[in-house]
Amino acid sequence: MAALLEVADLRVRFDGDVEALRGVSFSLQRGQTLAIVGESGAGKSTLAHCLAAIAPPQAAGSVRLLGRELLGAGEDELRPLRWEKVAIALQGVPLNPVATVGAQVAEPLRERRRMDRTRSWARAHELAAEVLLDTDLLERYPHELSGGERRRATLAMVLALDPELVVLDEPTAGLDPATRGELTGQIGELAAARGFGLVLVSHDLPAAAQLAAHCIVLYAGAAIEAGATRSILTTPAHPYTAALVGAYPLMSTTKDLHPIRGAPPDPRAIPAGCAFWPRCTQAEAICSEQRPPLAPARERLVACHFGGLKRLLAADGLHKSFRRAGRTVRALDGVSLHVAHGESVGVVGPSGSGKTTLARILAGQLEPDAGELHLDGPPAQARRPARALRARVQLVMQDPWDALSPRMRVAEIVREPLDVAGGWDERRAAAAVAEVLEAVALAPSGPFLDARVHELSGGQLQRVALARALIARPALLVADEPTSMLDASEQARLLVVLRERQIEMGLALVLVSHDLALVRKVTDRIVVLDAGRVVEEGSTPHVSGAPRSDTGRRLARAAPTFDTPAG
Amino acid sequence: MRMRARSGLLASYALVVLVLVTLNFFLPRALPGRPIETLSDPRSQTYVGDATTRTALQRYYGLDRPLLEQYGRYMADLSAGDLGTSIRRHAPVARVLGERIGWTLLLVGTAVALGTALGMIAGVRSGWRRGRRSDRRLLALLLAFDNLPSYFLASAFAYVFAVRLGWFPLYGARTPFSESYAPARAIADVAHHLALPAAVLALQLVTFQYLVMRASMVGELGSDHLLLGRAKGMSEHVLKYRYAARNALLPAVTVATLHIPLALTAAIFVETVFAYPGIGRLLFESVGDRDYPLMQGCFLVLSLLVVSANLLADLLYRRLDPRTAA
Ligand code: SF4
Question: Which residue spans traverse the membrane (chain B) (predicted)?
């Protein structure tokens, strides 16, 4: 039996130079559900039209509905398929303004099934009841209905001929959250009860998660990630998907929103190579030269030369022991940690759990007794590989006085990494220092540059340490209690700086802290350490909201709240 | 709701009529050269020689009274249906107008109905097939027609169809001494006389209506509800008429209203060329005769016609568009 829908290399180019779709392929079996997500302008609506047998004449490629080719077919061939086999709710739920809602629900029945007036009206009433639309509204004109009612009326209309495929283009856009949730739930029930195949086109990610088992992420008219909705939305692989998910406010995420840097491309001038490269923080030369194909990676399809977010750091089976007062203390006992490009990982645990040891090993300041440490990415530059590698990982220590020589001046401290890396002339180095100081909210010029370490406050010193860590544009920042010296507002300010750097440079972060309340605002994932072992690991909302380990629960209880004891 | 909207509409139209009537009173008195006063000035060219008429005129205009009293008198006369006396015809203006208005209504009504219907049908077809050959041809043809001045078109039609081909009578509204005709024959006779002037007048209106309907139709082509109709698998016929044309009709109806003054102006020429006994020709004659009371009467009737046509269109629009009906 033919698949419900088979789309192959679908391309739409309007007026010669507007590229709405650039080669989309997928297939859908009967009764399956698929979400097509992406920002506005990604080509979602054009795609929806192509599926609903109302493709613009410019469409090329192939769209097969139940084995029949839709593109290039004549109106006489398409008409019997429309609404009968595939029905669509268009974006903005347009209705004919001069006909009553009921007449429009009954219209397909009368025109297509040749039902008489009485029977078609009776059927329209049944359909309205099925979608929980007040049947009195059938007598009204479209402008007399609310947004939610119009959507229900459209849904009733869509179901009129019992189609095998239902395409919903932004079915919940512009509704208040309560109505949106209600409608989403109901669409799900209808799909389950009637068993139609569903294509949901939306930028509403929660609706996609709720309604569709499969998901395609569209960017600039092309699929950039496709697979199971659950895994795509919880562990996005493509940098764009990750950014999209990071920008979406959810009750289930605790992290602050991260806007996506840059703007979606103009469909008139889509960048060559990977369309996402001007906004991608891990782009390399190849990205602007070759277009990455949609290829299998991480149990899904990803269109990225690197299979999605690069793995930046892989630490496997780390062991470390110290001799202290004649006893051997196991600081790390087989700890593994992977960090992806741009990802934020929290490492939490009580004091003595091995957090700081881990941080120092990750940053290359301490040799592990056993285990492997890999920093992925392009091979480090020639002569001094170790040092160049080191520059890509920076460490900010808990106690800045330890790390910074008290006799050095602020300007020297901050620019030292540049001098170590070499190749910075005086002017560029000074400009970089000013910029990074400004970024951490310190005076970028004047006497402050000449101040010595012992003259600075704890807060200032911690920010100087951060500036020093950021100046060489590292790929990974390992921060061990970086805000321990700051008051709440200074701490908030510093976290904002970190977030900006993450959006702009795709900086990955390993945040070591015992403060779960802080870590959950900043990270995607949390690793709980206790006595040198990983006792729990998971997404930030899960670990911070419902910790499974004893250590996790203890930390959660210890995290600060404004709640006053009950009673 | 609906009742209140309509009575509001009627009230605003009543106000317009009041303003018109008042203007009709003041304008001739404000004209440069004081045309009314010169009527009773023996030295002027427009001196009315006939003593009875002159007295009647002076009484009608009440020139010896203060302005406000004149106005009050005018309004009172008007509400009694007294529009004064024609200078040349020695007959009450109201009666003269009454004899003529029927013909104008017939002519203009026929022409507007014909022109609007043809223009709309052509506009719907043309707009639906925008840019194709049939559309481009129709567009060129109608634009060419539109550029011909009405008196030229009228004369050309009269020459070709009445003089050369002899298909239609050259002038008049009915055959002389045809009062004795049987009803069916009388109607045929009137229609026969009506054909040419009505056709000329309709052609004057067709292009404008066509252009508006076409543009409005083209606007509908890209509308979302039309796309919805297409997705619903509606036939081309249903899409064209029930979706596109039905919605395109709304702006076109508003425009049809603008026709009325256009048609009335054109009617002055057409009635004159075809010696059609309507208000337009009467106005033309009264201007030639400097028959001020008659002129004023003609103006008043013409403007009232325009206002009532507007009112009709407004009411029609409300019926057509459910959004304004609410
Ligand atoms: S790394 Fe390159 S190919 Fe992958 S998403 Fe970024 S720009 Fe595209």
Answer: 7-27, 101-128, 148-170, 190-212, 249-274, 294-313
